[in-house]
C-alpha cells in the first residue's frame, strides 16, 4: 500500500516538473516576433495567387505600404514568369501580356529579369535581344536602362578578369547592336578595349563578340571592321612573341575564314526575330567611357503616397465617349434635339475635338448624305469659336488624306463641307493650301473639289459663287485654285472647272 502511494506521488511530481519545463520553453517562443514574409529579400514563402489576391482585398487602404508591397511581389512574379517563357514562337504574345502589367513602375524588375534569363541561357541571347527591341520601340527608357546596366556589368567583369561573365554580357550587347537598340560604335569600343593588350582571354572574348555582331558591322561599318581584322592579323603574326596560346591562334584563323564567307553562318538577325521596322526602332548611343548610372534602386520596392494618377493608355474612356455620342445622335429626332443633348453631356475641353471628329465620322458613314449632320455641325460652329476652328482643321486635313476615302464617304464629306461653306459656318480660307495643278492633285482630290463646287453652285447659284470667289479679301485663299503663275497650270484649272460645268467661274 505504501509503495502504491509513493508511486502515485512520484508520477504527480514528474507531471508537475514536465509542465513547468514546457512553460519555460514556450515563454521565449511566445515572445518571438512573427516574420513578415513579404519583407524578406527573396519575398519569403510562396503565396498562392488566390491567397495573395484575398490578402489584397482585405486591405482597405490601397496606398498603405503593406498593400503596395503585396502588389510589388505580384508584379515581380508576373514579370519574372513572362520573361522566362520567351522563345521564338511566343515572343509577340509574351510582349502583349507584359504590356498589360505596370512595367513603367516595374522597369527595374523587368530589366533585371531579362539580364538574369540571358545569363542563364546565353544561347538564346538573340531571342532576348529581339524581346528587348520590341519593348524599346515602345518604351525607349527601358531599353536604355538595360543597356546601361549591361555596360556596367561588362566593365566590372572585365576588371575582375571574369571571362565567363564577360563573354555572356558581350554576346547580349552584340545582339542588341544587331537589333539596332545599341549603336555600332559601342561594338568598336569593345573590340579596341579587348585587343589593346591582347591576352588569351581578351582575344577569345573579342572573337566570340565578333562572331555575333560581325555581320552587322560588315553592313553598317565595313571600314571599321577591316581595321579590327587588321589588328587581329597583327596579333596572329606576333602570336609566338606574345606567348599566345595555339588554341587562340587557331580561333583567329577560324574567324578570318568566317569573315571571308561574309558571316553567312552567323546572320545578324534571323527572319523570325526581325520584328521592328528600322524607322520605328530607337538606337541608344552610349559609350564605354560614359559614367552611366545603372539605377539599381529601381529593382527595389518604392511606396507612393498621395493621389494615384491613373493614365488610360487603352483609350477605354475615349471609346465610351464615342459610343455615348453615337447613341445620343441616333436617339434624336432632329438636329436641335441632338445639339441640346450633346451640350448637356458637358464635354471636357480635351474631348471637344473628338466630338467634332465623331460628328464628321457619323456623317461619312451614312449611305447617302443627310442634311441632319450638316445642320448639327453648323450649330456647333456657331456656338463657339473653338468648334469652328476644329471643323476648319478637319476640312484641311481631309483634303490631304482624301485618297483614303471610298466614293460614298468622299461624296458625303464634300456635301458636308459645302454646306458649312454656304452657311458661312467655317471660313473659306480652308482652300489656302489647295493647289489645283496636275502635279499637286490626285484623282481623288479633283473629284472631291468637283463635288464641293457643284454643291456650292447648286446652293448659292453660279453668280453668287463667282462673286464670293472674286471677293478681294479671299484672293489669298483662292490663289491655288485659280493659279496664274504658270500658263500650263492656268490652263489645267480652266479645263477642270469647264469640264465640271463651272466654266463661268474662270472668267
UniProtKB/TrEMBL annotation:
| Signal sequence segment | none
Region Disordered: start-end pairs: 1-35
**Where is the MI domain positioned along the sequence?**
320-436
> Which SMART domains does the UniProt record give?
MA3 (SM00544), MIF4G (SM00543)
Q: Does the keyword Nucleus apply?
A: yes
Major place of residence: nucleus
Q: Which GO terms describe its cellular component?
A: catalytic step 2 spliceosome; nuclear speck
PROSITE patterns, from UniProt? MI
- Under which name does UniProt file this protein? Lethal protein 858
Species of origin reads Dictyocaulus viviparus (Bovine lungworm)
Amino acid at each position: 500500500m505504501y509503495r502504491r502511494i509513493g508511486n502515485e506521488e512520484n508520477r504527480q511530481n514528474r507531471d508537475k516538473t514536465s509542465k513547468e519545463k514546457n512553460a519555460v520553453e514556450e515563454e521565449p517562443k511566445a515572445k518571438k516576433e512573427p516574420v513578415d514574409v513579404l519583407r524578406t529579400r527573396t519575398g519569403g514563402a510562396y503565396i498562392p495567387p488566390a491567397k495573395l489576391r484575398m490578402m489584397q482585398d482585405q486591405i482597405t487602404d490601397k496606398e498603405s505600404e503593406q498593400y503596395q508591397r503585396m502588389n510589388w511581389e505580384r508584379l515581380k512574379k508576373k514579370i519574372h514568369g513572362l520573361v522566362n517563357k520567351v522563345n521564338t514562337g511566343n515572343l509577340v504574345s509574351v510582349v502583349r501580356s507584359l504590356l498589360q502589367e505596370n512595367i513603367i513602375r516595374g522597369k527595374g524588375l523587368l530589366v533585371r529579369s531579362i539580364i538574369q534569363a540571358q545569363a542563364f541561357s546565353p544561347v538564346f541571347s538573340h531571342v532576348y535581344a529581339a524581346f528587348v527591341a520590341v519593348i524599346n520601340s515602345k518604351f525607349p527608357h527601358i531599353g536604355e536602362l538595360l543597356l546601361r546596366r549591361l555596360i556596367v556589368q561588362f566593365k566590372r567583369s572585365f576588371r575582375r578578369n571574369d571571362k565567363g561573365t564577360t563573354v555572356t554580357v558581350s554576346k547580349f550587347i552584340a545582339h542588341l547592336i544587331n537589333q539596332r537598340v545599341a549603336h555600332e560604335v559601342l561594338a568598336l569600343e569593345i573590340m579596341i578595349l579587348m585587343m589593346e593588350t591582347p591576352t588569351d582571354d581578351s582575344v577569345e572574348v573579342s572573337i566570340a563578340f565578333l562572331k555575333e555582331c560581325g555581320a552587322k558591322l560588315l553592313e553598317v561599318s565595313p571600314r571599321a571592321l577591316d581595321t579590327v581584322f587588321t589588328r587581329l592579323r597583327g596579333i596572329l603574326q606576333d602570336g609566338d612573341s606574345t606567348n599566345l596560346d595555339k588554341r587562340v591562334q587557331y580561333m583567329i584563323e577560324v574567324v578570318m575564314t568566317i569573315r571571308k564567307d561574309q558571316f553567312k553562318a552567323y546572320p545578324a538577325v534571323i527572319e523570325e526575330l526581325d520584328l521592328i521596322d528600322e524607322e520605328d526602332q530607337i538606337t541608344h548611343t552610349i559609350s564605354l567611357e560614359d559614367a552611366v548610372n545603372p539605377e539599381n534602386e529601381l529593382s527595389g520596392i518604392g511606396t507612393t503616397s498621395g493621389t494615384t494618377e491613373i493614365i488610360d493608355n487603352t483609350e477605354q474612356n475615349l471609346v465610351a465617349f464615342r459610343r455615348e455620342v453615337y447613341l445620343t445622335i441616333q436617339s434624336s429626332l432632329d438636329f436641335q434635339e441632338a445639339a441640346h443633348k450633346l451640350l448637356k453631356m458637358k464635354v471636357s475641353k480635351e474631348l471637344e475635338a473628338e466630338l467634332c471628329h465623331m460628328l464628321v465620322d457619323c456623317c461619312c458613314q451614312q449611305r447617302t448624305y443627310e442634311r441632319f449632320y450638316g445642320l448639327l455641325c453648323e450649330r456647333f460652329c456657331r456656338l463657339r469659336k473653338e468648334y469652328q476652328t476644329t471643323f476648319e482643321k478637319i476640312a484641311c486635313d481631309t483634303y490631304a488624306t482624301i485618297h483614303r476615302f471610298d466614293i460614298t464617304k468622299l461624296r458625303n464629306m464634300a456635301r458636308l463641307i459645302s454646306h458649312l461653306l454656304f452657311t458661312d459656318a467655317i471660313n473659306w480660307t480652308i482652300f489656302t493650301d489647295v493647289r489645283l495643278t496636275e502635279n499637286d492633285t490626285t484623282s481623288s482630290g479633283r473629284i472631291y473639289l468637283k463635288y464641293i463646287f457643284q454643291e456650292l453652285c447648286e446652293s448659292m447659284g453660279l453668280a453668287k459663287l463667282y462673286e464670293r470667289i472674286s471677293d478681294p479679301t479671299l484672293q489669298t485663299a483662292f490663289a491655288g485654285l485659280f493659279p496664274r503663275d504658270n500658263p500650263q497650270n492656268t490652263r489645267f484649272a480652266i479645263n477642270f472647272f469647264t469640264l465640271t460645268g463651272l466654266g463661268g467661274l474662270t472668267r
